[in-house]
Design goal:
The complex is a heterodimer of chains A (157) and B (174).
Chain A: H1 7-14, E1 19-23, E2 29-33, H2 38-48, E3 55-63, E4 68-75, E5 82-89, E6 95-97, H3 106-117, E7 120-122
Parallel strand pairs in A: 2-5, 6-7
Antiparallel strand pairs in A: 1-2, 3-4, 4-5
Chain B: E1 10-14, E2 17-21, H1 24-33, E3 38-42, H2 46-54, E4 67-68, E5 76-80, H3 88-97, E6 103-107, H4 108-113, E7 136-138, H5 145-160
Parallel strand pairs in B: 3-4, 3-5, 5-6, 6-7
Antiparallel strand pairs in B: 1-2
Helix pairs in contact in B: 1-5, 2-5
Classes of the chains: A alpha/beta (157), B alpha/beta (174).
Chain lengths: 157, 174
């Protein structure tokens, strides 16, 4: 009983109230998780379920203007199940807990998330700038409406 | 093949041999233009065209151009590709490490003016000439090897017009 269609119901059962289902699309199910419960959910997905989600394939940020979103794509090399985990954050002072100790691959993704979207990542082992220049002081370039020193906006046609 | 011009000399036959008269400036310029060793600065897809130009099909070697991986041994820096703000201090450092006289060729749209990354980009420097002085611009995205060769031949013409008094110049970007 570790097929793709069982993933979401089992998580909803384990975390009732903190996790809601976004869409039940068997090849790639998606769930929405409370920012406060994110570590518990990933600990559970990595270690406790029979699905054995052992691979973080992608971690990305989305600026949806009215809120920010962090999207985790996880995969199981054993049961071949996939899951998308989304977290919604407020645009002012967004904060999220690091999952570096659960998935080591999250380290650089979270650094990228922090510098490009300005999402503060709590308890991260190494928060130096990854992609931006070392002396960068112009904010977070992937946020909507951002402008910098030599930033040129494409003129409207 | 007539790609590299002959040394401009006046030759006079005298009994028992010959006499060659020329100018020091011309000899030095000729020898420098005929052996422009270039430093690899492959930053993006233009570097693939540069490699192709250096390989046997297009054969940069017949111009006397040999790639060097060290700034100390090179006369010319081929900036081939997209220069990011993160890379900019490094390209400045390597340019400063080259010994004078030194030349820079900006290959492709990105190195010239940011190319397709001119608009809506936070990371790309809008032209290598904002960081280091550029002698030749080669347009294209990416330019074909023929374009790069044309650019290098234009640079050779420039080198041949150098004056002895200019050699000590130390060009600093504004």
């Amino acid at each position: 009983m570790s097929s793709q269609s069982d993933v979401v119901p089992s998580i909803l059962k384990a975390f009732s109230g903190k996790v809601s289902e976004l869409e039940l699309n068997p090849p790639q199910s998606a769930i929405l998780v409370d920012a406060a419960a994110i570590r518990d959910v990933f600990e559970y997905l990595r270690k406790d379920t029979e699905f054995k989600f052992d691979y973080l394939s992608c971690l990305s940020g989305v600026d949806a203007v009215e809120h920010l979103e962090v999207v985790y794509h996880i995969f199981s090399t054993e049961t071949k199940c996939k899951l998308t985990v989304k977290v919604k954050l407020p645009p002012e002072n967004p904060e999220i807990d690091s999952i570096c100790d659960i998935y080591k691959a999250a380290n650089w993704y979270e650094r990228e998330l922090s510098e490009l979207y300005g999402i503060k990542v709590n308890v991260h082992p190494d928060m130096r700038l990854l992609l931006l220049p070392d002396d960068w002081d112009q904010g977070h370039p992937m946020r909507k409406g951002w402008t910098g020193d030599d930033f040129v906006v494409m003129p409207e046609k | 093949m007539g790609i590299v011009s002959k040394l401009p000399v006046y030759m006079e036959n005298v009994p028992g041999g010959g006499l060659v008269t020329t100018r020091l400036e011309q000899v030095l310029n000729w020898s420098r233009a005929s052996s422009l060793w270039y430093m690899l600065f492959g930053l993006a897809c233009c570097a693939i065209e540069m490699m192709c130009t250096g390989a046997s099909r297009f054969d940069f070697d017949r111009f006397g151009m040999i790639y060097r991986a060290s700034p100390r041994q090179s006369d010319l820096m081929l900036v081939t590709g997209t220069l990011t703000h993160k890379m900019a201090p490094r390209i400045k450092l390597l340019y400063d490490q080259m010994s004078s006289p030194k030349y820079v060729l900006a290959m492709g749209g990105c190195a010239t003016r940011g190319g397709p990354f001119y608009y809506d980009s936070y990371s790309v420097v809008k032209g290598v000439d904002l960081i280091i002085p550029v002698d030749i611009y080669v347009p294209g995205c990416p330019p074909r090897p023929e374009s790069l060769m044309e650019g290098c031949m234009k640079l050779m013409e420039k080198v041949k017009q150098e004056k002895l008094v200019d050699w000590s110049r130390d060009v600093k970007p504004e």
